[in-house]
Amino acid sequence: MAPRDDAWREELRQALSARDRSAIARVVMPALDPAYRITCNEEVNRGLDREQAVIEATRCLDCPDPQCITGCPVSINIPGFIKNIQRGDLHSAIAVIKATSALPAVCGRVCPQEKQCESRCIYNKMKKEPVAIGYLERFAADTARNEAATDAKAAPTQREASNGIKVAVAGSGPAGLSFAGEMARRGFDVTVFEALHEIGGVLKYGIPEFRLPNSVVDAELDSLRAMGVRFVTDTIIGKTLSLDDLLADGFKGIFVASGAGLPRFMGIPGENLIGVMSSNEYLTRINLMSAGRGGMTPVASGRRVAVIGGGNTAMDSVRTARRMGAERAMIIYRRGLDEMPARAEEVRHAIEEGVEFITLATPVEYLGDERGHVTAMKIQRMTLGEPDESGRRSPVPIEGAVDTIEVDEVIGSVGVSPNPLIPSSVEGLEVTRRGTIAVNEAMQSSLPVIFAGGDIVRGGATVILAMGDGRRAAASMSD
Ligand SMILES: Cc1cc2nc3c(=O)[nH]c(=O)nc-3n(C[C@H](O)[C@H](O)[C@H](O)COP(=O)(O)OP(=O)(O)OC[C@H]3O[C@@H](n4cnc5c(N)ncnc54)[C@H](O)[C@@H]3O)c2cc1C
Ligand code: SF4
């Protein structure tokens, strides 16, 4: 699709010299003003307009050996879609992306592009800012979605004739959704079972509205429904329904995509105090149960909030705390800013929103009052030592350097483990030492009827990897 030697692409390459194209400055994503955005939940990034997108697409050099593609976990034909944006053919642009990615409007917003495709763009070697591939992906997906919504004739995604074979999915996060879409396209009769009352997994209960609006996820769900995918909520596989129930019900294959939603704790004194909780609990209460927006589920909203960790979950929590009214919202992270695993844009947005970063520090104890409420935390100052197995320099405590900070809420984001229910409840299902489901290259488990993918196989990973697993499992199960 969109071969590089098509006449129109050759024409675009000839139209402007590489020197002129590389002289164009990278587009800046329009964003809400920080002072305003911390007062609401509106999406921070506003998206490119058509003119900005075409100019940014013009920067792309349409390289003969495009390394950006090798940086994308699902190998999207990046120059193929970008050049279609440049020539104004958005239908072809989105078709190129959808050939390998099921949720482009989501990925354009949440993928860590600076570590993936954009890190391999030739512009980096030229000491210039890479092409804004993520912004362009989002532009193509949003424009296609908006046009489909207003175009009564918009055709639903093509699917093969029904083969009548029933398959089940446990979990409705990106892995389950991409598997469901791919199987439905191949003519299978797909039912997705979800433990919670909402479909979408972390896309709904984890990542906040100000970064990924629910309407974006809902549009993707609508297109799956239009393809015949059925969703059953409030159903826990392994409890409400067992594997045997599903087999007895005529399901011929099961894809387990139950994620890694089990929060880890640090095991330090005071973790049981009131006001100390996991990001998982905090974000789920706010995003899924309307806590803080007049819903029935309460959540404490502290004035001095400390969030422990440096990943996306930590950034989402601390920025949410700021929106919930925290006067002092702090990130406590044991390494330095440069080592933070969060997307660079989230860190930048958090800084703009007045979040304080206390780096090279880790909590060692939480202190409480006579009613059991957290009031302060002791933090151990650290320095960076030798690199560990992840290649990042390890934090080492500085002897005697312990400080106390006043807090009235602490949110822990120090990692997650696989949801244990399915791995532990299905006899004969091989599980790794980390509690993840063991699968082969085809995403098939030790039980031939069960395939698995996403965080339940990888531990906490990324949306695009979960989606890629779903597609790979669908390809192997349907073979
Ligand atoms: C706050 C937060 C922010 C993140 N930010 C980013 C980001 O910016 N970029 C990025 O790429 N990644 C990000 N991630 C990671 C990413 O969201 C996950 O890697 C991805 O969602 C994993 O997809 P999944 O489909 O495997 O699982 P999940 O999205 O976790 O979905 C699993 C679903 O299965 C359901 N379930 C569990 N057990 C059962 C059962 N027994 N029966 C039925 N249903 C069950 C769960 O309720 C859940 O809905 C973030 C994660 C979090 C928590
Ligand atoms: S590496 Fe950069 S310039 Fe080259 S094709 Fe990819 S996005 Fe375009």
Major β-sheet profile: 5 strands, parallel
Q: Strands of the largest sheet, in order across it? A: 3-2-1-4-15
Termini Cα gap: 23 Å
Mean pLDDT, as a whole number?
A: 93
Overall radius of gyration: 23 Å
Number of helices: 21
Which fold does the CATH topology of the largest domain refer to?
FAD/NAD(P)-binding domain
CATH domain class name of the largest domain: Alpha Beta
According to DSSP, the number of beta strands is 15
Ligands bound to this protein structure: flavin-adenine dinucleotide, iron/sulfur cluster
The CATH superfamily label of the largest domain reads FAD/NAD(P)-binding domain
What would you call the structural class? Answer: alpha/beta
Helix content: 25-40%
* Name of the CATH architecture of the largest domain: 3-Layer(bba) Sandwich
Tell me the fraction of residues in β-strands, as a range: 15-25%
Descriptive overview:
- The protein is an alpha/beta fold and 479 residues long.
- The chain has three domains: 7-150, Fumarate Reductase Iron-sulfur Protein, Chain B, domain 2, CATH 1.10.1060.10; 166-261 and 418-478, FAD/NAD(P)-binding domain, CATH 3.50.50.60; 263-415, FAD/NAD(P)-binding domain, CATH 3.50.50.
- Helix content is 37%, strand content 18%.
- It has 21 helices and 15 strands.
- Strands 3-2-1-4-15 form a five-stranded parallel sheet.
- Helix 4 (50-59) crosses helix 6 (78-87), helix 6 packs antiparallel against helix 7 and helix 6 packs across helix 11 (133-150).
- The mean pLDDT is 93.
- Residues 60-63, 66-68, 78-79, 121-123, 131, 133 line the site of iron/sulfur cluster (SF4).
- Residues 110-111, 170-176, 193-196, 201-202, 206-207, 236-238, 257-259, 261, 283, 312-313, 316, 343, 419, 421-422, 454-456, 460-464, 466 line the site of flavin-adenine dinucleotide.
